[in-house]
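Collaborator request, handled under Task 6.
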Amino acid sequence: MAPSTVVVVSTPGAILMPWASKVKGILMNYMPGQEHGHAITDVLSGDYNPSGRLTVTIPNKENEVNFTES
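Structure tokens returned to the collaborator:
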């Protein structure tokens, strides 16, 4: 990927991103609503600063939080 690539991720939870260090930025919007296109555009263009805090912890590597299969 190009060094100026920003990846937009729409997912219901944490995912592994072994390529994360190869991109300029990652915008994770979990499960967006019908206005997600406008919201993403506002963030990428700098019109809005997504400075909120997440309610979850996202691990940096696989099984960092010691999840087990049930």
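The cover message to the collaborator said: "The chain is about 15% helix and 10% strand. The helical segments are 36-45. Please let us know whether this matches your experimental observations."
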